Amino acid sequence: MKKQLSWSGILKIVLSVYGVTGIVLWHLQEQILFHPTPLTAGYRFDFKQPHREYLLPVTDESTLSLVRFFPADTNRKKGVVLYFHGNRENINRYARFATDFTAAGYEVWMMDYPGFGKSSGTLTEDRLYSDADVVYRMAAGQISSDSILIYGKSLGTGIAAELASRRNCKRLILETPYYSIPELAWFHFPLFPVKRMLRYDFPTYARLPQVQAPVTIFQGTRDRIVPYRHAQKLVPLLKSKDEFVTIKKGAHNNLADFPYYHIKLRALL
Description:
Layout: H1 7-27, H2 29-33, E1 35-36, E2 51-57, E3 63-69, E4 79-84, E5 88-89, H3 91-94, H4 99-102, E6 106-111, H5 125-140, E7 148-153, H6 156-166, E8 171-175, H7 181-188, H8 194-197, H9 204-207, E9 215-220, H10 228-232, E10 243-247, H11 259-268
Parallel strand pairs: 1-5, 4-6, 4-7, 7-8, 8-9, 9-10
Antiparallel strand pairs: 2-3, 3-6
Helix pairs in contact: 5-6
């Protein structure tokens, strides 16, 4: 006859599973948060739109990969969009979005994060901020700050918001932004003290009140990664001239499939 587990035995198993899961989350948080696809230094980007690639030395051991996408008519350049992409692959995945801006006469400067594409070095939150600042200073050396737009997509929204909180720009545009990474992690893992466990913060909520430029947020109602109500928590932090744009039925990775997104974006550009 099989011996039944006592309540204390069941509790020990549950606590053991909980503890092991917590340890796994602690040690694998980079793998959960970041999904890079590295590229060799000799890899050649094959984009159809006009572009130029840069490999910038950050330190003796690390480099920053940057691609500039140009409008077809360079004589009607309106400005520069600094585009900070999401947490997957590399610039190859996000290059197609550059045409939204180049068609309107803007250059698009898109960088890869450490470990993504050809960018090398140690990936930390501070490193992401400092790399973004390197790109901004390069752009500001060529064009006035009132012609620089800062755009963040998903993971990149925290980087974009931090940069815009310190640097002047024409506008900050955030696509599917989070309140903070710990707050988002708590939504997905509510049983764990993730706010104490995480080594990454990206506190978008703390940056927005410091942004002097107009802010536009795009968020879909069917986003399962950054839920709509989670992004809505940023609304009270917006200024009167800012805008929260709702894309009905939009998910996390498909806002560009909706005509309303392009209508609003063209109006901003």
